[in-house]
Amino acid sequence: MQRASAAAEARVVGPPPSMPLPISRWFCSTLDQLPRSTLHEVLVAMAYSRAFFEFQLTFASRLAAKFDLSLADTLYHYTTFTKSFDSGAWIDFLAGVHQAPDATTWIYEWYRAHQQPDPKPHDSHYDGHPLFGCFYFVLRDAHIIRPHFIQNDLPGVRPLSRARVAVRQAELSQMFAYIKRQVPTARTVLGNSWMYNLEAYCRLYPRAYTQTMAVSTAEEFQFLALWGQCFDSRWQIRTEIAAELLRRVDALTNIADLRACFPYQILQPHGAIDEFYAFYQVA
After folding, report:
1. pLDDT tens string for the chain (283 positions)?
2. Which of 15, 64, 131, 135 is 20 to 30 A from 159, comparing alpha carbons?
3. Within 10 Å of residue 238's Cβ, how many Cβ atoms?
């Protein structure tokens, strides 16, 4: 199958409702200028890079200085670190950060010492959940299905490329067949990620599911659902996006408006479970 153009693969569905049109044009332009290899990659390597922690440390330090907050507070509330590490060891982690001559190196080594094994393409479980290739789900309130995407494809493969659409949809078909058998109370599918801004991701799901998407108003600074946009497949920094985020933070006057500093907002599509059974031909 011939690969689609880089611009087509990375094309956004449309400007997020809370994003002013000029900013959305800036972001589309930024995506078009990224190298082809980067454009097609969204979440490839599971293991985080040193740059993953370095950028968030820079972000937290700048936020702390600007709003007269402690670094401990900004690391806890405004980075993914509490989800990247065992939160039970948070006090020990902070002590190490404050004492280390090179905080970034210390954070990265701490992560490497505590990280969990990455899943493999044919694993059946991940983080306590049934795994279907690049997807798993979480059940909320006994009837809401929350799908999650991780990179769990073959090495060197772009998981959201057109060439892998059939594979991804087959995985989703398996997942929803499992849900129909094992979770008879499921009634609704509710998404929650910046990735729903990407057509390459939305095309994996029923059109009705992504046709109307609300912008999350929750404080989700601890989650990759928001932070993932700042990194490429190898968890290296997407330079233009990171620079724009820090530029907006520098111009920020009220920390309550911090969420709007991220170029992509978290979108929340939703749909009836029967739409998914029909779309993936689950009997």
Report:
1. 333 333 333 445 544 434 333 333 333 333 344 333 333 333 334 689 999 999 999 999 999 999 999 999 999 999 999 888 766 788 999 999 999 999 999 999 999 988 877 788 788 888 889 999 999 999 999 999 999 999 888 888 889 999 999 999 999 999 999 999 999 999 999 999 999 999 999 999 999 999 999 999 998 999 999 999 999 878 899 999 999 999 999 999 999 999 999 999 999 999 999 999 999 999 9
2. 15
3. 19
d(CA 98, CA 115): 21
Identity (one letter) of the amino acid at 95?
A
Evaluate whether 47 touches 152 at the Cβ level (below 8 Å). Answer: no
Nearest Cα to Cα of residue 13 among 162, 198, 225, 203: 198
Of 199, 197, 204, the C-alpha closest to 265 is 197
Beta bridge partners of 146: 138
57: which residues sit within 8 A by CB, 6+ positions away? 75, 79, 103, 104, 107
Residue 275, SS3 per DSSP = helix
pTM value is 0.81
Q: Is 272 left (phi over 0), alpha (psi -120 to 50) or beta?
A: beta
**Phi, psi angles (nearest 5°) of residue 65:** -65, -40
Give the 3-state secondary structure of residue 112. helix
Q: Is 70 exposed, middle or buried (0-12, 13-18, 19+ CB in 10 A)?
A: exposed
Q: Is the dihedral of CA 273, 209, 242, 255 positive or negative?
A: negative
User: What is the bridge-based pairing of β-strands 129-132 and 144-149?
Assistant: unpaired
